Amino acid sequence: MPQVPQTFFDALAVRTWCGLALQALGRAREEIDAINVYPVADGDTGTNLYLTVESAAAAVDAVFAGHEVGSRRPERPSLAQAVRAMAHGALIGARGNSGTILAQLLRGMAQVLAADDAPHTDGPGLRLALRRAADSARQAVAHPVEGTVLTVASTAADAAETAEGDCGAVARAAHEGALAALAATPGQLAVLERAGVVDAGGRGLVAVLGALVETLTGEAPRGVPTSLAAGHARGEGDAAEPHLCPDAAAAPEDGGPAFEVIYLLEADDDAVARLRRQLDALGDSLVVVGGDGLWNVHVHVDDAGAAVEAGVEAGRPYRIRITHFGAGDVHTARGERPPVERVQRAVVAVVPGEGLAGLYADAGATTVLARPGEPPASGELLHAVRRAHAREVVLLPNDAELRHTAAAAAEQARAEGIRVALIPTRSAVQGIAALAVHEPERRFDEDVVAMTSAAGATRYAEVAVAEEQSWTMAGICQAGDVLGLIDGDVAVIGSDVTATAETVLDRMLAAGGELVTVVLGDEVPRSVADRLEARVREAYLAVDTVVYRGGRQGSLVLIGVE
User: Fold this and answer.
1) What are phi and psi of 460, to 5 degrees?
2) Segment 343-357, tens digit of pLDDT
């Protein structure tokens, strides 16, 4: 159904724009994924942009819903409230390099549109918003590259500045400028020209601006032909067509880092300035967006743990996502254009804390962070399986309560042609044991059997604080008691973390063991691990101990005995 044109840009227009942009990206998602070759040919730019806008749209809907609750005559939120919600939703939901840049584009617009708390803006106001969006996005990228979404955004803003008239005229000019810039991207970036494609992030921005045109004029702009390519950009006419098959994609000539690290960060401006310098020295594709104490950090690195640790030094990182790029996606020989192929096998693991996320990623796993009280949904696990970009995937849920969620994700992945084995690990320490014996060169079934055997031979325990009074197998506990759980059941009720952990460890080692793994939460002092290590040395000969920092993992201490 055609949209009703809006002369001004107000809160309702923001909501409509988000909805139409989500629809447009949904239609174009697979096409955009297929042409994704820069900065890494991981085939997910369309999906990442869709998820970013989905989060923005949900935030705007929530603001409208809040004004409707309990009101006989519901009032619309103000333009400032709507654009701030849009920007915040995009910031916390941003995925990948292009999604993070899009979040900053929306934030830049919000800074202008919310400045005077007016009920709406006109053409000149929208021009200023588009200019601020393009400039702030460029500033957020450590080393801007032409021929990318940044170029498309800047050209769109340039075109908008020449437009006369209302918001619809400005939006049309911006969209036309973005289309022209998109067509020129292969001539600006060699990797695009070799692959015969336009920039995927820029293609997504054109879709978003097209939705803005439809919102403000009631008419959908002309579609983006898939024949846009280097030949078109050089003026050779519309007949030149690129190869849009993802198998023809080429990655950066000199290879690249092995991991993508993304997290939200609570930190002040000074700490973020230091963080930028640290991460810039660690890797590339660095984008840090946000402000007012909340930031979204994106970087490609070889040392994922160091990238997370830098965030911990700067403030409080959370919602950490670490993805291991397949070697075939990232590294290519100079001057060659081998097909981008899936790696043969990958491990996808759910982990309960930032420290463990870094540990798993360093071991080559694609990780999904399970935040305390926020278990991942099956869709998030399925997305991680796709991001692993492998023909065979071993899935480690590391939580008994996630078994059905993981099974649903595995079933969907199998329907997409991915061979998935679900190992029912119930704790992250069982996942560590499984990952330690993982050998991608073995036959898939043999590898799964070995990993399953290692996980099953690992008893697990945790030390946590009781949130309320309850009955347990060890008796009645009160809120605030320290609980020691062995294989999921409460075995010890105590008042001291160290003493409870030591009792749990003794009970576990009574049945024998060769290796003790201790994972400490952020709030637990190192002295707890020191005491457990001393206990093992004193009472259990030939038993080794390893200690890790888990981050904000929910439990105070995790213990594994193999």
Assistant:
1) -130, 150
2) 889 999 999 877 888
